[in-house]
Amino acid sequence: MVCGGFICTKNALCALNILYVLVSLLLIAVAAWGKWFDLVSSIKVVAGVIGVGIFLFLVAFVGLCGALKHHQVLLFFYMSILFIVFVVQFSVSCACLALNKDQQDHLLEVGWNKSEATQMDVEKTLNCCGFSHVNLNGSCPARCFNQENSPPSCETCSNIIQQYTGEVLRFVGSIGLFFSFTEILGVWLTHRYRNMKDPRSNPGAFL
User: Fold this and answer.
1) Helix crossing, 157-194 with 43-69: angle to 10°?
2) Which of 12, 24, 162, 174 is 20 to 30 A from 202 (CA-CA)?
3) The whole model's pTM is what?
């Protein structure tokens, strides 16, 4: 059967959902690895990443079952959910690519002030203290702040983070755009697949 027929469309849809399953398992594994090795102490961050991984896994599982069984209801719900995810992800990806420096700095400061656990993770990892100024009378887990027999000489975290913010946002936005196009491809394949006849079934039936 030529590509574009029932079997080819089914195999393409199955392959796409297997890719989503692998990505979801990777997200869950990375979050668990980061928490296990104490790279991330914020439970909210770990739970959020794991939650996204589980959601993606469930969506991919529904799509895979619908593709294998040519199940109209599962394929409809899968197509609807995937389209909603596409709209959200495409919007967020475009926003990441469109943010200017002032907007990036504002979002960084808002995110910094929301979680003390995240602050400690960043200070410990980047060896910096404070966002815009170093509080010498406070506490800081960075190595530069806890040096013995010498006054603290730490750089602010905003100076270090801002060096990489633009590159990170462009990378995240590009990856998000790539996966958003795979999602709209999945919507198109699902819509096409739902309206095809299964050659192995009754030739007079329309599934």
Assistant:
1) 20
2) 12
3) 0.73
